[in-house]
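Notebook, bench 3.
Goal today: get a predicted structure for Dipeptide ABC transporter ATP-binding protein from Roseateles violae so we can plan the truncation constructs. The sequence was checked against the plasmid map this morning, with no discrepancies at the termini. Length recorded as 563 residues. Pasting the sequence as submitted so the record is complete.
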Amino acid sequence: MLLSIQDLKVAFRMGKVDGQMQRQLAVKGVSFDIPENSTVALVGESGSGKSVTAMSILNLLPSNAEREGKILFQGRDLLRTSLSELQTVRGREIACVFQDPMTSLNPVFTVADQIMEPLIKHMGMSRKQALVRAEELLNEVGIPEPKRRLKAYPHEMSGGQQQRVMIAVALACSPKLLIADEPTTALDVTIQRQVMELMARLKESHKMSMLFISHDLGVVGEISDHVVVMRHGQIREKAPVAEIFHHPQDSYTKALLACRPSLTENPARLMVIDDHIAGRSSHEGQAKPKDPNAPVILEARGLQKSFFFKTGLFGKKEFKAVKNVDFQLKKGHTLGIVGESGSGKTTMGLTLLRLHEPSGGQVLFEGKDLLKMSGNEWQKMRRRIQVVFQNPYASLNPRFTIGQTLLEPMEIHGIGASTAERQARASELLKKVGLDDSALNKYPHEFSGGQRQRIAIARCLTLNPEVLVLDEAVSALDVSVQAQVLNLLKDLQDEFGLSYIFISHDLAVVKFISDEVLVMQNGDVVEQNDTPSLLAAPQQEYTRRLLGAVPRGYQGSAAATTA
């Protein structure tokens, strides 16, 4: 057995109250094994303790963490090793790949510097030897022109390339165990597929084991051999992957599987964890068709956005990010925008909102061109068209309480007759997105990523908008919270007649919420159709490739359930 975790408990000291140290128990007696040459997946919602469990292995936890139990790595108890011994294990025998490569890679060091560091430190290589090996590693993880990319800085690479660099850094010293913490969450489906296949291939070629942490059961089903399901710091179920998918025993595991949007079904609502555990009906029938004669509320005609870059002393180069995009959005309908990273879908959404100034075209809102409005006219119009961004860590002011965050837009736009009325509306919206009044006096850093996104959606709804541009608004959420938010968006649409532009790389989510889908590639619209027709019979090879990259969970034989 490569690694054995036995009765692990992790608590965080929260400070003293009346002279007594308060502790919050995050991991409550967790035990599982990772065999050699195997992939074990840790699955659960945000706050389940899966990342805390994984980071306990190398003690990559805050200083207020306390660990008990045993973590046996090839017979050594890592809980009882000295810091100097642990530092020889980190990177050399056990390596990590984290969720967001931009926060893991040092922005002031080149790619070469960051790959060479563990090679020099742990392997005793000279800089010349380490540079040769760094180029080999970039080639191994599929970075084109590896010699040239060694001189690049992280910001000069795409998200998928950054994650490949992180994998190259992790594999530099040929570790026996790779801990991968949500390594594909922020990537589009085709890049996600490439990274998954890359990690599976490298696991085999390097003869290493992998601890794969994820909330996406579709990904887990394709990459893992064994699955450990966690909730509230405890293990609810552990079994081979085939058994988890075909014969789950625990109600929580069954609920996680049931929450996933499907490419084959079209329910009116998605199940959430509590629905399944309480035994409530799985579906409320099929989704109701929308009014095909609904008026058009937003229309783009020949929308263009170009960026210009200096070349040489006086030269200038044009990059066309959005090229003559046309679409119509009907009142009460949802238009899904899909495509790979760099396809122009987010740039198109931001140009609609004049967060990027357009290079050409028209955006008509109830017949008025938004792109020609004066500053005062546009300021008044902003209340009616709102945006929810992808990254809740960057979109919430860290110095504002949640109450201040929700009250500020209402005060600016004169919504609510008094502060008390605005506070009541803020409380009501928090409840709608699955939070309670206690959140009002807290700050963003006190919430998980999923909770922050719900707060961002609540803030957006304070202004009673008519059109929402949702830019990857549920991509960072675990399946149950994602289901809650998607159900909420449908409820709000039915209640208020909201119209959505829903930008996403997750085609299963797009299928659930969208009435029409627009597919973008390299700034162009390559295909557009109503959702059922486009997904059932895509006309373009690019669309078929996007569909083929969607993780579908474990597809092996139901009989393959032996450990």
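Residues 189-206 form the longest helix (18 residues). Confidence is low (pLDDT under 50) at residues 558-563.
Flagging this for group meeting.
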